[in-house]
Write a structure and sequence with these properties.
Elements lengths: L1 E9 L3 H16 L3 E2 L2 E4 L9 E10 L3 H14 L15 E7 L4 E3 L2 E3 L3 H4 L1 H10 L4 E2 L4 E2 H7 L7 E4 L4
Antiparallel strand pairs: 1-4, 1-5, 2-4, 3-4, 3-10, 6-7, 8-9
Helix pairs in contact: 4-5
Length: 162
């Protein structure tokens, strides 16, 4: 079994879509550990606020199979791939970590770069896996959150039953 850590985000009917995505991920991967859900302003474009969280579980599938399953789930939930990178979306699911994978694999760069640049990724990740190491810097996620510039991106926890 391989540790799988995902970032989920939505700003189109976000409460509904986050709940639907978590249910679908549980069907696919079984038991998941979840961070709290955080709300933040859209980054890179003018849009509705996003809801984000990090989910963690284990997978017997290959990275390629996991990636294909996640893209299919996004598509099934109405994700339009012809839109700009920074745009409204019903669901966005990114693989942050896949076991000890590092570097380029299956068109992904792991660990995912947004871990270091996006508060809405790092804060829930540090909450869920505080002592897990970010291998390129050999620092724990809680250490990375401690030194993160929190003035650039505001986010706040919300109550959402998952």
């Amino acid at each position: 079994m391989t540790l799988l850590v995902l970032s989920l985000g939505s700003n189109v009917e976000p409460k509904v879509n986050i709940q639907l995505a978590v249910k679908a991920l549980r069907r696919k991967f079984g038991e998941l550990s979840l961070s709290r859900v955080f709300e933040s302003e859209a980054v890179g474009f003018e849009g509705n606020n996003f809801l984000n969280l990090v989910a963690s579980g284990e997978s017997e599938s290959s990275l390629e199979d996991v990636q294909n399953s996640l893209k299919m789930l996004e598509d099934d939930m109405g994700r339009e791939r012809d839109k700009p990178k920074f745009s409204d979306r019903p669901i966005d699911i990114d693989i942050l970590l896949f076991g000890d994978s590092t570097g380029e694999e299956c068109g992904l760069s792991l660990p995912r770069a947004e871990i270091l640049s996006s508060a809405f990724v790092l804060r829930p990740l540090a909450e869920l896996h505080p002592k897990l190491k970010y291998s390129p810097l050999n620092l724990c996620f809680d250490e990375l959150w401690d030194v993160f510039d929190k003035t650039q991106q505001k986010l706040w926890p919300i109550d959402l039953s998952l």
